[in-house]
Amino acid sequence: DARVTQTPRDKVTEMGQEVTMRCQPILGHNTVFWYRQTMKQGLELLAYFRNRAPLDDSGMPKDRFSAEMPDATLATLKIQPSEPRDSAVYFCASGLSDTTNYGYTFGSGTRLTVV
Amino acid sequence: RKEVEQDPGPFNVPEGATVAFNCTYSNSASQSFFWYRQDCRKEPKLLMSVYSSGNEDGRFTAQLNRASQYISLLIRDSKLSDSATYLCVVNPVDSSYKLIFGSGTRLLVRP
Questions:
Q1: Measured between alpha carbons, how far is B73 from B85 in angstroms, rounded to an integer?
Q2: Of A9, A29, A107, B7, which has the highest C-beta tally within 10 A?
Q3: Do A101 and B49 lie within an 8 Å CB cutoff?
Q4: Do A103 and B34 touch (CB under 8 A)?
């Protein structure tokens, strides 16, 4: 089965450090999403791309978060500097924008702990 | 008001029971609807799309009521393996492609 691959699986870092999370979408998928999940807020959309162009990053704290797609096989989410409140599971998902009725596929997530 | 609202549960039912979840959405222009399932410490996985005419997949039936802006999921003959969190998901505007998730309804199926 085709999979969305996220790295690292787990990350523990100290407050103030830079964190970079990576996502390899399913080959051929042109839409990529970054979500954050916490117990309190549930799944929140941070940013998404279509054909590598950012469409909406309004859910992302702009002062410390940045999302990019340097090429069609890689999406990155960077936090600099990290804070304890950023602790969450970060999911990447990909899909085909022309087939929204089929939903999207999620990666297994990056569990981030900022101490 | 949240864009997608669900009863968090938990719904605690015996094996073999029928259980139903509802979900309401605020944007009447929403076009696509889904149910996702999320197991503990795992990623969400697509369970089924929800079509205007309603659709069934084995023991699972999904229905959409556009007039009242709610979506339902019915699970018949519950299995222990159905224990999970069920997420209601809406694509709020057809051209945006993004998915908005409800906070999920937790289901516990007991022996």
A1: 12
A2: A107
A3: yes
A4: yes
